[in-house]
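Z., the sequence and structure:
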Amino acid sequence: LRLKAGEKYVATVLASDYENDPITYKWEVLPESTDLGMGGDYESRPETLLSMEVSEAEIELEAPKNPGAYRLFVYATDDGNRSATANIPFFIEE
């Protein structure tokens, strides 16, 4: 997925709760990790560039301004504190 620096994009996730509990979504953008371990080794977490918690499964976000590899994470959590997560890598072109 290649995006243009500073452009606005929409991200959507599909999630449902079998008990119909409300779901809260936490969205985060981080640079792609360069600290790669093996077999469960500790890996430091890159600095979070964007973090927002909303009740909608869709957000509009502005792509980072610096070229490079990034990752968009979403955490969907219900009122019972049960969660699911997904992420997608993307690249900002020069």
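The mean pLDDT is 92. The two ends are 14 Å apart (CA to CA).

Let me know what you think.
H.
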